[in-house]
Amino acid sequence: MSADSQSPLQRMLAKRDWILADGATGTNLFNMGLSSGDAPELWNDTAPDKIKALYKGSVDAGSDLFLTNSFGGNRSRLKLHGAEARAAELSRISAQIGREVADASGREVIVAGSVGPTGEIMEPMGPLSYAVAVEIFHEQAEGLKAGGADVAWVETISFGDEYRAAAEAFALADMPWVGTMSFDTAGRTMMGITAPDMVKLLDKIPNKPLAFGANCGVGASDLLRTILGFSATGTQTPIVAKGNAGIPKYHDGHIHYDGTPELMAHYATLARDCGATIIGGCCGTTPEHLRAMRTALETHVSQDRPSLQDIESALGGFSSGSDGTDGTGPTRLRQNRRRRSS
Question: Model pTM?
């Protein structure tokens, strides 16, 4: 494939050792006044200046790539807000605002069209058929493409079939894509998929992603253990690490994350040494965290793959004693989580 025929993300991956992604969407929108239970995607239409500020906050902090405000923008999830008919429209607007911010940045910035799970359980355990899942994802992908997204980015997936359905939808839309799963139960997704399982799943997908990996989950330590699981397979596909900024804590009616910018800076360099190429944050990650991560990655000298003990010493204990590959179940989160800044 010639350089001219490659997508912007392919070209960036070909010439960069690492790429800084963005941080949280929900956390930052809540800080702007979004109420719990409201659909953030409606703000694409009603509060575009705030969505522009969300994107610009990441870009100004050094992100090379940011996700659009369209995570819950599929018709299944928007039905909860009576907006199911607006799935393509709201996704298109989210990408249009993102395209404007990226083009005005003065440097190369990737607009990634965020696609979250449908929110429904797939057959045979639930009512959602594979064919309908493809339709739902395809509709949203077409909206993101029309708005100018460079790449489709499916995230926080737990079902293998839902991941495959998204891949098929992106092929129908003729969009390059990236896909991450959320590993939050003793190294497994909600449906029991481990890091090696996900790599095997990629082998069965005709429309290969440009990159794959993990987002959200529990804390940064657990996510990096999953990243080690990916890289240990010898995969040549670039790996994505988008971990939460610490552990959530409920305070004064709101959820707060305890990860400091210093902790996330250390997480970013450890993620690079674990084998990740695209590195960002998920829940709780603000522009302040991203600035620290950018500085850390720019000055980092590559080290050997960290051990689990290295990760635990730097970022705190794991939520379980296993990465999910040995059948060990979750254990209580270790108390007195240790922190050490980079």
Answer: 0.93
